[in-house]
Structures are given as C-alpha cells and as structure tokens.
Amino acid sequence: MNLSTLSLLHWGLGACLEATILVLALVRKLGQRLPVFVAYLVLLVTNELLMFGFYRMVGFKSRIFFYVFWSIQGLFLLFRALVVYEICRSILSPLDGVWRLAKPFLAMMGCILLAAMLISTRGTPLSLASLIPTGQRGLELIIVGLLIAGLAFCRYYRVQADNYLAWIALGLGFHSIIQSTDNTFLPWLGHFALWAALSHASFDIAMIMWVVALWNPLAAVRHSPVLLGQDEYDRLSPQVTAQLRELNTRLLGMWK
Amino acid sequence: MTIAMMAALVIIVLAILVWLLFVPQRFPRPEIGPLEIKKLLPVHCKHFPQIKKILNQEDEIFLARRANRHTLKIWRKERNRVLQLYVQGLAEDFQNLTALARLISKLSREPRPSQELELLKASLQFHILYRLTMLRLALRTLPLPELSRLTEMVAALGFELELLLNKMTARIPQAGMDTV
User: Looking at the domain assignment, is residue B79 inside a domain?
Assistant: First the structure.
C-alpha cells in the first residue's frame, strides 16, 4: 500500500523544514553550543532521505518498514532527551556550583519518571502494538518532566534562558506533551479529528518554533560571572558580616 | 469529558513551560551590584518591639473605655494596616535574604545540597505562614505568635548567612583563593 499524495506532500514539506533548520543551525554555528541538537537535526534530515528511498523499495505497510520506522523513532526519542539535558547544561553550566547541584537532581528525576513508566507498562500485553504507545508515552513524559524540572531549577536560581534556547525547549516540550497525551488517550481520541490533526502536526509546529529560535543571530555566549577580586572581597565580606552580626545581636535582644 | 480533561492538562503543562521560559523574573530590587550587597540585608524586622507593643491588648481595653465607637473602629483599622505593612516588610526582608543566599550559591564552586534544601524548606514554611498571617489580619484577629515566628525566621536566616559568610572569610587566607 502506498501513501496518498497529501501524505507525501506533508512528508516532503516536513523534510524541507528540517533541512531549513539544519542550514540555519549551521549558519548560526549552533554546533559549538548545542552539538547534540545539531546531531539530532543531521539525523532527522538523513533519515528523511533514507526512509523515502526505503519506502519506495519496500512500501509503507511492509513489516520491515514498521520495525525500521519505530527503531528510528526510539533513537529520536533518546536524542530529544539528550537535547533537554544539553539545554539545561547550557543554561546552568556558567554557574559551576548550581550545575553540579542540578545534575544529580535531574538524574534522580529521570530515574523516578523511568520507574513510573516501567510500573505503568506492567500488565500491558506483550505485543508491539500495545508496547509502543505505552513506552513512547513514558519516554515523552520523561522528556517533559526533565525539561520542567531543569527549567524550575533555572527559575529558582534566577537564571534566564536565552531566547533561542527557550524556543528550542518549547518546541521539544510541545511535541512531547502532545505525543504523550495522544498515547494516553488514544482509545478515546480515535474519532476526534481536530486532535488527530494536532497530533499529526505537533512535530511540524515544534519545527516552526525551532525556525523562530534560529531566525535571528544568537546572543553572545554567556561566560561564568566575573567574581570579585580578592581586594574587593576582603573589603566587602567583613562589612557584610558586621552588619548581619549587628542585626542578629539586636534580634536576639528582642527575645530576651 | 475526557477531551476536556486532556485539553486542560495540555494547556496547564504548556502554560508552565511558557512561564518558566519566557516570563521575566521579578527581582525584589532593580539590580544589586557586587558592592551593594548590604541592600539585601533585612530592615523591617528591627521594628518588632514596636509592633509587639501595638499588639498589646491593654491599649485596646483602655481605648474602648475612653474613646467612642467610631474612633475605636478607625484605630483598629489603622492598627491592622500597620500590621499588614509590617508583615509585607518581613516578606521583603526574607525575599532579600534568600536572594543573598542564592547569590552566594550561584557564585560558589562547592555545591551544598543540604543547605539548599533547608533554604527551600524555610522559604516554603515562610510563605505558608505569611499567607496565614495575612489571612488572620484580613479576618481582624491579632496574629502575635505568627508575627513572632515570621520575625524569628528572618532572624534565623540572617544568622545562618552570617555563619556562612564567616566561614567563607576564614577560608580565604588559607586557601589563597582570589574569588568567592
């Protein structure tokens, strides 16, 4: 069975958009900042070319096409999770201590979400048709969970993400939210046309967000904050300490 | 029903993402320069002795005997307003101190998970108590224990920061560090 002209057109447009993002990423030298994201884009474009050739050879409904397609989707999911980690690292790494604090926190969050996913797949029939939606939902939820946890960490320490990073993260989050919801409510959504269209177009919407992210030149790289020199620190520190001590002496006096 | 629930879920998660990514953060002060750190030190909690006097019931009993109802009503309203301003001031003090603590964490090379967790816990406790105190003030009751606890929390955080800064000051000549 072959795909309809409309589906082929959608495929072609998607591939063009992916190629545009890759070109923009290369022009903006994004590889120096987000190498995993650029590798993911390269993989996306290469995949489109190879999959189209493969589709012409074996057809859309063949068993081998099914296995290859879902294996590559698994690889893409892994890459998207790595991009989320890369985005968090990119925002927080200029602050050494905070990033060292965030790493185990994100790892812990990932483990919790993975455990939750494994628990939720318990009792699922051992067939690919049942395991793929459950597994995909779990992994997409891990991506959203890690993204929100990482960004909450940035917010807590008052670190603002650069505009391009924010749009890339939003694209990733949007696609993962739609896909995980789609897989959760699939039995009820089969006949709901609007949702089906949104689910089908979620990756295209994410790609438009990535085009927005890379459309303008990127902001200069943020380096670690310039800390005080020893002279200034030596002058400032006793001053602050003395003020705090004075305040505490007064406060302690109140309780007596 | 399922569709509505699902749509609500997606919208909520997306709203959280957009808020985390795009909504600018509100800072308690316009911008604190490296040598203006004293701007973050608490100022309002110093007035607790005066506030404690305001909460004294004897004043109210005295006024109830001498003044008319209208004057007493105005006095109570003004007292409430002063208390509300004091509690808001305490919240500002606390916010400034947590900003100072986070500034130290941001510039520190050594992560201190237990202290960060303590700070987060204290912030949550403070915010809950703050809301509770404001609610009690709105209900026209006198929240002396809550006010004492809030002032105590600001003082305790100030004390913790003092110890931390003392430790950092002591470490510098030994380690020969040129930065915080």
Answer: yes
